[in-house]
Structure formats: structure tokens, C-alpha cells
Amino acid sequence: NSGSEDERGVLAAYRLVGRENKLPFWMGECGAKAAHCATGRRGQADLAAKMIAWVNHRSDYLGIAFCIGNEYDWARGRLWDYSMGHKPGEAAMITASALIDGLPYQAVQTGDANVQAGWFGDTYMIWRTDDSSSQWSLKSDKPGPWVAVDVVGATKPVETVGDALQFTISQSPVYILPLAEYERLTRTQLPDFSRRTIDANRVSIAAVTLRCN
Predict the structure, then answer these.
(1) Among positive and negative, which fits the CA dihedral 185, 43, 147, 198?
(2) What is the distance, to the nearest Å, from the Cα of residue 12 to the centroid of all Cα atoms in its chain?
(3) For the range 105-108, what are the long-range contacts, defined as Cβ-Cβ under 8 Å and sequence gap of 24 or more?
(4) Which of 55, 130, 155, 192 could form a disulfide bond with 64, CB atoms 3.0-4.6 angstroms apart?
(5) What distances in angstroms separate CA 9 from CA 16, 58, 117, 182, one per listed residue?
(6) CA 111 to chain centre
(7) Number of neighbours of residue 30 by Cβ within 10 angstroms
(8) Least confident of 48-52, 139-143, 187-191
(9) ∠ Cα 100 104 106 (to 5°)
(10) Mapping DSSP to helix (H, G, I), strand (E, B) and coil, where does residue 202 land?
(11) Dihedral angle sign, alpha carbons of residues 46, 50, 56, 60
């Protein structure tokens, strides 16, 4: 949409007639028919994480809410559609809520037009805006070790090369943060990454959050 068609355009028109609404409430739809492709569920999860990051980096939004139909759509015969409930979209909301929601935002100039990144507290969130993947290097004076958390909460250690962290980025967001901060935010303790290899698919914020609650 153009600048006159989205919600900011609506607010601008509102001001033109001498009215003001400091806390607008908008309802909309996005990610409908997410099963259009084989990776639709992951795309739905990616979009939820990016929306949460977007609203957390602005000062003129109070928040964002998602309405989740907690049902399996396939059971009702809708073979090409599905809700977010009990699926990656819901895991993405739990993950973003734990790692970035409400934390101080600091913009990052990546030097690459196809890469979006920012700090939310001690969490570095990054993704590509195109369909490619690439290696990314991050230098930080914050103490390690560091972990990488994907959009649905799967966690793995981050490799250090010299004085920089090295990891892969793609159009699916990834969160990079110190292990100690991860444990503080999720109220849990991960296995010692320096001593043994773990199955990253078995370590997820979704499971941790549900257990803590």
C-alpha cells in the first residue's frame, strides 16, 4: 500500500480535519491462505515475528495482537488453509514474546539493502529480505557464549571466528543473544554447549515457556 492507504495515511487524514487519536486501534488480516506453498507454515511464522519486531521498533504504536483459531483446519476439510494455533505461527509468537517484546530497540545499519537487523535489549534480530541465504558476521563486547534461536524457538550455539560471531541468515528471522540472557529471558537453563552436542530440534522456547507458565 502507498503512504496514503495504510494506517499512517488514515491518521494523517484524521489530523487534517482537526481530530486526534493518540492510541488508535486497528484490526486487519495478514498471512491468509498461508498454505499457498510448501513452506507456508514457515512463512506464516516468519511474518508473525517480523510484525512483532516492527511494532516494537516504533514509538507510535501501543502494541499488536493476534487472533488465533485453535483448531486444525484440515479436520474441517479446508485443505488449503490453516490457523496459527498449535502450529509454527503460534511458536513464533511465543519466541518473539520471550526474546524481543518490550525490550529497548536500537537500529542497526547493516550496509546491505537486503538485510534488516536491530537490537532489542541484548537480543540481535536479523533476516534477509530476498530469497537467498548468506553468512553474517557480528562483533559484540557482550560476554559469551552465544546462542542462535530460529523463528520457532529451536536453539543452537553460535560459532566464534576470531573476535566475531558467524552464523547463517535467510528470509526467516534469527535471534542472536548471549546464553546467559537467553536463560534469563526464558527462565530456563540450556545444556552446556561447550561440552557436548545437543539436538537443537529438542530445545525450543515454545516448550520452555509452556513449562514455566
Answers:
(1) positive
(2) 29
(3) 105/56, 105/57, 107/57
(4) 55
(5) 11, 16, 26, 38
(6) 21
(7) 10
(8) 187-191
(9) 95
(10) helix
(11) negative
- Report the C-alpha gap between 139 and 4 in whole angstroms: 39
C-alpha grid cell, residue 176: 542472536
Q: Select the highest-mean-pLDDT range: 21-30, 60-69, 151-160.
A: 151-160
Closest CA to 183 of 171, 174, 192: 192
Q: In what order do the strands lie in the sheet with 155-157?
A: 105-107, 115-120, 123-128, 174-178, 146-150, 155-157
Confidence of residue 36 (pLDDT cuts 50, 70, 90): low
Q: Which three cell numbers stand for residue 14?
A: 484524521
The count of residues in the chain is 213
Kindly indicate the confidence band of residue 122, based on its pLDDT and cuts at 50, 70 and 90.
very high
- Distance between CA atoms of residues 47 and 28, nearest Å: 14
Between 73 and 118, name the one with better pLDDT. 118
